[in-house]
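To whoever is on call:

I kicked off a structure prediction for a single chain this morning and the downstream step that reads the tokens threw a length-mismatch warning. I double-checked the sequence; it's 165 residues and nothing unusual in it as far as I can see. Pasting both halves so you can look.
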Amino acid sequence: MTELSLAFALQTPADLHAIQKLEERAFGPGRFAKTAYRLREGVAPELSLSTIARIGGMLVGACTLTRIAVGGAPALLLGPLTVEEPFRARGVGEALAQRSLEAAKAAGHALVLLVGDPPFYERLGFVRASWGQFVFPGPVDPGRILFYDLQPGAGEARRGLVTSG
């Protein structure tokens, strides 16, 4: 990542169209059928916690956090985390996620959930959820549900249905 002249910033409404195009290229139209996407339908991302990466004027990555609830208690959903193909495996995704997690912790949030690749996210400190700990409103591979404690013990203390925030 050091050879890239990356600039990180918080997302703004002006970035949303470019982020949608990036997600379209990375995940295709099938992304809308996924439960995590359905949870985010009609819910604006938390722009004060969501980050982007640019090289010059080109958007090369984005990490979005959205408000959700777990068993009625507030939490955040990380995703999508998207990086343009030529810039993957260079630490851009990790840097985006870390910046978003730091912003969420500084803002006083307690817990972040995601549905994703365990080997990637476990390197960032995410932990696999216990079977049945978090119940999503649609099909989700339970082995891909992970959480990150922004406050000690927040993940283990929460259980229940995951709903839009």
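Update from on-call: the warning came from a stale cache, not from the record. Cleared it. Sanity check on the structure: The mean pLDDT is 90.
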